[in-house]
Design goal:
Elements: H1 17-22, H2 24-43, H3 46-62, H4 73-94, H5 115-134, H6 137-148, H7 153-160, H8 164-183
């Protein structure tokens, strides 16, 4: 299973449990930004993602004895994060809350001096974020793992404990739904 750290990163965080414990700050630096971004998209709550990322690192440190150091660390860490994200969403659902943090997830303008172009970019990003949150978790999770974290299908299958064909089917269904939702012009009230 591939590591969930950025592919361009030149320094790999330590892999043995003892080295991980001794150099945990390196682990936080290697995985922190991607973990927060993953949790923000997974939950739709950028502010909660920061807290969830911190909790993920705390739990990872406390439970390093459960980590199999023959395997890559990234997928184990992101498994902890996804579990915390699921718990957060379940608790929010039980309380009857909805997401209100989608504005902060929109990609910033591309630096274009044209305000109309910047607005279109922001609107497309917001529409995509809303559409991702509409996906059921069984479709959203493989999409985020594949497109956000760049995990290959085989790694997603192993992580979700399903076969590769099921991952491909979920990705196809998710892309089809996203395309349909994003192709339909929003209804405007008079």
């Amino acid at each position: 299973m591939p590591d969930a750290s950025p592919p361009s990163q030149s320094t790999e965080p330590p892999r043995s449990r003892d080295a991980l414990r001794d150099r945990f700050e390196d682990v936080v630096h290697a995985h922190g930004a991607r973990l927060r971004r993953f949790l923000a998209r997974y939950t739709g709550e950028p502010h909660a993602a920061e807290d969830l990322a911190q909790e993920t690192f705390i739990r990872a440190y406390r439970h390093l004895d459960r980590f199999d150091d023959r395997r890559p660390f990234g997928p184990w860490l992101f498994t902890l994060a996804a579990n915390l994200g699921r718990d957060f969403l379940r608790a929010r659902f039980r309380r009857g809350e909805t997401s209100d943090g989608l504005d902060a997830l929109a990609e910033p303008a591309d630096g274009s001096p044209d305000p109309a172009a910047a607005l279109r970019v922001r609107e497309r990003a917001e529409a995509l974020e809303h559409a991702l949150l509409r996906l059921p978790a069984t479709l959203r999770e493989p999409v985020l793992l594949h497109y956000e974290l760049e995990w290959p299908v085989a790694a997603i299958a192993a992580y979700l404990r399903i076969d590769e064909g099921a991952v491909k089917t979920r990705l196809h269904r998710a892309r089809r739904l996203l395309h349909a939702w994003l192709s339909t012009p929003p209804s405007r009230s008079p």
